[in-house]
């Protein structure tokens, strides 16, 4: 089987397209096929940096992991990172192209077709089957003229389509039927099957509705997928995991500040799943309390989110918790917020030119027009945090516009040795007492040795054997992909899906 593709589209955002794309990638891999994910245009604040220093959507990284292949920017040639309600940073083939308004980008889209097709063609050289993910809904009739991500994409590569509806939010029959009816006739013919996702309940009660839906649309229902008991990364900023949670009996309380423009909240996946950690996402200062650790995460607009902290009174709550003994960590934009001053002379992020930070780290940040995107290996200078700890090697990736300077007596968080240029540079900063630190390294919490040392630092009554009971995080993720694939395989007509692939490759 060579150069085959199938596309998953949805009746709306958040119906499960990303997760089901990952599921099919793993199923095809289990069946002996080299599969790869593809999404021509992704809008997300969660991104990743490839080995080549190129930026792509994190959902496609998750799907690549499911397919057991290395992520590459061809899987997501166009990435949009919102900077405000009507504007976004446009990233083309992994590099920043510029900032555009919604109307400007809509006019710009036709110029991207060659880039999208080139990326798709590169994947075809390596894959037996490509699983294409759409975005939002194909029935956005105001956007169809210049569409490059739904039916426009399917037409470009002549891909058959499976349409997904989310039954958990209600109205699934109306949303599927309405979507089909708003498609052009040639687009309706391209839809080869319907999938009902996130089902809870008795399938027998659902069956009469499925038969009527098939009769109305003339398209078969190829599966009803249960609300999954698997743990796969989500990319939506409104994901369930970002909602505030109550304190639990777990030994270590970690509070992540839920910034309006939070980016790369996938950084905390490992901590969320550790049985000794209770992680809360908080935007109400009254709910912060005095946790063991406060994390200020990455953000697409550092200055605006710093203003948000002040307007909500979260800045005072963070400083109060610090005085009561909470440790504080800033990741990327969160690191910048912890400093003394932030300056944006070119208006890179917003119209705000200068703000004072929280002042917990003796650093200053100036925003530059050039974006830093690179994978990074470093060694944490742990003696700056706790003399009992040895230096630990970590890996992560950098995505930032700001350049941060350490002032007198400020200590760096990590040492980075550039193997190609034989130079040493430093990342982040640590307060003199080691209770506040910041870093530009996204993915820092994916390093298990580092996490184990961090948990011991936060809780003196833990020992390493107790912490390591949870096992390898990498093994945990692989297990979740397998559970996802099993759940979906048992719920859909894979025989018919293979027949659809064959029919469209002839």
Automatic annotation (TrEMBL):
<comment type="pathway">
    <text>Cofactor biosynthesis; adenosylcobalamin biosynthesis.</text>
</comment>
<dbReference type="InterPro" id="IPR027417">
    <property type="entry name" value="P-loop_NTPase"/>
</dbReference>
<feature type="active site">
    <location>
        <position position="442"/>
    </location>
</feature>
<feature type="domain" description="CobQ/CobB/MinD/ParA nucleotide binding">
    <location>
        <begin position="6"/>
        <end position="228"/>
    </location>
</feature>
<protein>
    <recommendedName>
        <fullName>Cobyric acid synthase</fullName>
    </recommendedName>
</protein>
<dbReference type="InterPro" id="IPR047045">
    <property type="entry name" value="CobQ_N"/>
</dbReference>
<dbReference type="Pfam" id="PF07685">
    <property type="entry name" value="GATase_3"/>
</dbReference>
<comment type="similarity">
    <text>Belongs to the CobB/CobQ family. CobQ subfamily.</text>
</comment>
<feature type="domain" description="CobB/CobQ-like glutamine amidotransferase">
    <location>
        <begin position="253"/>
        <end position="450"/>
    </location>
</feature>
<dbReference type="Pfam" id="PF01656">
    <property type="entry name" value="CbiA"/>
</dbReference>
<dbReference type="GO" id="GO:0003824">
    <property type="term" value="F:catalytic activity"/>
</dbReference>
<dbReference type="InterPro" id="IPR011698">
    <property type="entry name" value="GATase_3"/>
</dbReference>
<dbReference type="GO" id="GO:0015420">
    <property type="term" value="F:ABC-type vitamin B12 transporter activity"/>
</dbReference>
<keyword id="KW-0169">Cobalamin biosynthesis</keyword>
<comment type="function">
    <text>Catalyzes amidations at positions B, D, E, and G on adenosylcobyrinic A,C-diamide. NH(2) groups are provided by glutamine, and one molecule of ATP is hydrogenolyzed for each amidation.</text>
</comment>
<dbReference type="InterPro" id="IPR033949">
    <property type="entry name" value="CobQ_GATase1"/>
</dbReference>
<dbReference type="InterPro" id="IPR004459">
    <property type="entry name" value="CobQ_synth"/>
</dbReference>
<dbReference type="InterPro" id="IPR029062">
    <property type="entry name" value="Class_I_gatase-like"/>
</dbReference>
<keyword id="KW-0315">Glutamine amidotransferase</keyword>
<feature type="active site" description="Nucleophile">
    <location>
        <position position="332"/>
    </location>
</feature>
<dbReference type="GO" id="GO:0009236">
    <property type="term" value="P:cobalamin biosynthetic process"/>
</dbReference>
<dbReference type="InterPro" id="IPR002586">
    <property type="entry name" value="CobQ/CobB/MinD/ParA_Nub-bd_dom"/>
</dbReference>
